[in-house]
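Internal ticket - ligand job 339, flavin mononucleotide:
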Amino acid sequence: MRSEDGRRADAPPVLLAPLSGVTDLHMRRIAQRLGASAVVSEMVAAAELARGDAESQVRAEGEGVEPHVVQLAGCAETPMAEAARIAVDNGADAIDINMGCPAKTVTGGEAGSALMRDLDHAARLLGAVRMAVAVPVTVKMRLGWDHASLNAPELARRAEDLGLNGVTVHGRTRQQFYKGRADWSAIRAVVAATRLPVIANGDVTSLDDARACLAASGAAGVMVGRAAVGRPWLVGEIAAGLAGRSVTPLSAEARAAAAAEHYEGLIALYGQAMGVRHARKHLAAYADAAGSGALSPADRRRLVTTSDPTEALALLRRAFLDPAGLEPDAAGTTIGEAA
Ligand SMILES: Cc1cc2nc3c(=O)[nH]c(=O)nc-3n(C[C@H](O)[C@H](O)[C@H](O)COP(=O)(O)O)c2cc1C
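stdout (structure tokens):
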């Protein structure tokens, strides 16, 4: 449906995916301010949050993010319910439950995607969290454990019966980890199985991908993960494009400012020593997003290894803006439809 100004009134939401060790508070804040429909915290181990672990509290932090969605990972009902209550008491507007993580450290504890091997157990966890909090509860899953057990439709049906509010499906099985291509069309079986809104995820890196993913899956919206690392503005650009708005990509100056805000935010959040370490992967990704050749290999190395924030900020700025302060892409290009 289009409104009088030609924009879609029912534009599909575009979310920033939870990425452990990556989607910290500041990345989420920036992505949201630049137009992401919603952002999800990195996974928080429920048992650790329930016992008051300080690092888990930082991961679940959401000041200035709205809606503030906290993702919980775990395999036992009591800590999952307790962690959900704590997150909501601390301001979470919604809880997402991780049933997609393939990492052995998580599945070995029977959490994450391991829960797709035992849907009765998965359903007990969903029910426990549903009963514990009054805010919306969603679940993020894969297509199944392997191709012999593509049970995401069944898990989505159970989520609906238990009163959950939505599901996200990464179009790979657990056994695929991140190999091959996400199968967007396989998500269609989940859409057919439930009346809950389904968000499709996996390998969406552009507006064209988002359109193709929605067309193949029939999903209500898309979630973007790895492609947004170093480019937190991408999520909002895709959202605007799907809404039919013309989008002028952020100027190099604005991208440099966002990257600097992220870096400074991490140092404020974690303190200088730990903040600098947390920032390394982001700095590398921002340098890559700025374009090849923006920094010499030696300067790029220096950017990601220096523990001197002043030096890092100067190099970060140079990565986006040439030394004369000219914007490499001053001409700008537009994505999305003309308004
Ligand atoms: C480094 C990394 C960390 C991730 N952490 C989480 C997590 O905490 N919770 C979760 O549900 N999925 C996690 N995922 C999976 C992503 O949310 C997403 O489903 C996956 O990367 C596919 O989407 P993409 O192709 O857009 O990245 C992680 C993926 C990566 C690469």
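Auto-summary: Residues 252-270 form the longest helix (19 residues). Residues 323-339 have pLDDT under 50 and may be disordered.
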